[in-house]
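re: ur question from yesterday

yeah so i grabbed the chain u mentioned. its 329 aa long if i counted rite. heres the sequnce exactly as i have it in my notes:
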Amino acid sequence: MNFSLTDDQELLRDSARHLLEHQCPPALLRAHTDDLTAADDLWHLLDDFVPLGIGPLVDLCVFMEALGSVAAPVPFFSTACLYAPVLEAIGEHDLDSVLDGHATGTVAVAGADGVWHPNAESRKTFVPDAARVDLVAAVNADGAVTLLAAPPVRRIETLDTTRPLYDVETAVPGTSAGVISRAALDDVLLRATVALAAEMVGTARRLFDMTLAYAKERIQFDVPIGSFQAVQHKLADMSLDVERAWSAVYYAAMAVDAGDPDRTRAMHVAKAAAGEAARRAAKDGIQIHGGIGFTMEHDLHLFLRRALASEALLGTTGDHHDRLAELLF
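ran it thru and got these C-alpha cells back, copy pasting raw so excuse formatting
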C-alpha cells in the first residue's frame, strides 16, 4: 500500500501553506487578541475549504496541519470539523449554506465535566467560537439537535486567544433540526479529534522550526547555542516527537477513510502523540529560547498557547492514554 500523499493532496498542502504564510502573520494573531473580527478577511479567504470537513479525512488533516502552523484564528475547526459533519449526519438542509461559505457554526456537547458526551445539562462548556458563529448546534442527552442563534454565552478564560471557548446556555428558544445517533456523533468526534491532532502537529512543527532557527543564530561563548550537545539533544527529541505524531495522525486519518476496525485506537494514539509533541515543543522551545522566549514581544508564546490549549481540547493526552488502556486491557 502506498502511504504517500497524492498529487492533489500535495497541491492542497502547498496552496494552503502559501496562502496562510502571506495572509496570517503573527501580527494578525496579536490583533485578534483584542478584536475577534480582526481575522474576518482571512476567514473569507478560507471558507471555500469548508467542504473538506465532510470529505476524506486525510485531505482535511493536510489543511488542518497548515492552519496549525500559523495558529489561524478563524472558526474553521468549529465550522468544518464539528458543525458541518453534524448537519450532514442529521440531513439538515442548511448544510449547503455552510459548505458554500455563507454560514458558520459550532457544536455544544460537553456538560460541566467537560467530557464531550451527550447529556441533559442546559449549560454546555468548552464550545469553540460560540460568540462569533451564526448558529450553535446543541446536542441533548437523547441526541436531539437544536440550532440556536446568538444564545447567551460566557467566555472561558483560557491560555489560547486564537480559539476562544465559551459556556453556552442552551435552555433558550431554537430550531429543532433532528436527532443524531450516538454512533454518528461518535464518528463526528472521532474525525474532529484526528483533525485537531493534525492541527497540533502543525503548531508543534512551527515551534520546533522557530527553536531550531534561534539555536542556529543565538551566539553564546562565541558559538551558536545549537552547537551545544544539550541543546542538540532537546532539538532531536522535539523533532522525533513531531515526526512520530505526524505518522500517527495520518495513519489514523487513513484508517478512518478506509473504515478500518482499528480507527478508534488509532485516533487515541494520534491525539496522545500530538499532545506529547505539542507539550515537548512548547516546554523545550521556550527553554532553548531563554529569556527572550518569555517576553510578550516575541512570537513564540502565540504558538505555545495554541499548542497547550489544543492538547486539552477533546481530551488531554492522559485521557487518551486511559482510553487506550481500556481498549488494550
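noticed a couple things. The first helix runs from residue 7 to 23. also The chain has eleven helices and nine strands.
anyway ttyl
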